[in-house]
Amino acid sequence: MSRICILGAGAWGTALATAFVRQGHDVRIWGRNPAACDEINRLHTNTPYLGDAVLPDALQATPNMAEAVTGAEIVLFVAPAQSTGDVASQAAPHLSASAVLIACAKGIDNRSGQMQSEVIAAQLPDHVVGVLSGPSFAADVVRGLPTAVTLAMPEQDAAQALAQSLSGGGVRLYASDDIAGVQIGGSLKNVMAIAVGICRGGGMGASAEAALITRGYAELVRLGVAMGARAETLLGLSGLGDLVLTCSSELSRNFAYGIAVGSGRDVSGLKLAEGVYTVSIANKIAAKHKISCPVMETAGMVLSGAMSAEQARVALMSRPVKAENPETPKSPD
């Protein structure tokens, strides 16, 4: 069994910690909020994120970074994507030289345009950095319901060994060495989920939602391949699988956020939706690569207030008619 540190006491961090404790691993969560850590330790709940779900008695949380990280063999970065660099910097003095680092947040850094693994590697260049992503709701994982995700590492053999050691109970990990693809799928699907949510909130109907999911996925693949992903990775759990889940339930913060925007509701009190922060930098990257992403571009305009949901519908439906699949994206050699 491994000594595991989870950096982030939100829904997904707590869910992963719960799953690993149930497998018998020695797990400690680091969280910024001392009151939240105290609730996990004393009451075995994390009510702001997971309601009345009961957490394992053995699960411990601390606001002390040194206490959480020291001696950990595996460190998972599960804090919000835009704070990953700051968290990595705080963890640096306490990491063991052999610690394996795994990026779990889904988002592109909106200042640098870097993937999460790149943000971590920039702060901690002497460590192996992997990625965990895929179709998963924290509430399902805490309940022990079946969940499958992808673990990517620089080497396939290392990914396979780590996936084997971290699989168990309701969680199954599939190994990959396509670190770029696993991250890009998880990041861009958040933007597409907001777009589909806007469609739902605006009452545009199930047919429009299906069209947006399909065309949004085509954009995700085009841009992902241009950014270095393998097309087959984006067809898997961390791409298509995650997109389908995120666009199917209001348990998805990004989908729920889009619904609120599309229906004209106030979004100021909603929980963090990573796609809101990813959309602007993703559109800049698409422009740099000269990749056409009308769904993503339109979602960005709606979120910025430059276009209403109704104007977005008209804009997308009035685009020039063309072949559905003019060419099939090819993965880089």
Overall description:
With 333 residues, the chain is an alpha/beta fold. The protein folds into 2 domains: 3-177, 3-Layer(aba) Sandwich (Rossmann fold); 180-317, N-(1-d-carboxylethyl)-l-norvaline Dehydrogenase, domain 2, CATH 1.10.1040.10. It is 50% helix and 11% strand. It has helices at residues 11-22, 34-42, 47-50, 65-69, 84-91, 116-123, 138-142, 156-166, 179-201, 206-226, 231-234, 237-246, 253-262, 274-288, 294-304, 309-317, and strands at residues 3-7, 26-30, 60-62, 74-77, 100-103, 129-133, 147-152, 171-176. Strands 3-2-1-4-5-6-7-8 form an 8-stranded mixed beta sheet, sandwiched between helices. Strand 7 (147-152), helix 8 and strand 8 (171-176) form a beta-alpha-beta unit. Helix 9 (179-201) packs parallel to helix 12 (237-246), helix 9 (179-201) packs across helix 15 (294-304) and helix 15 packs antiparallel against helix 16 (309-317). The longest helix has 23 residues, at 179-201. The two termini are 38 Å apart.
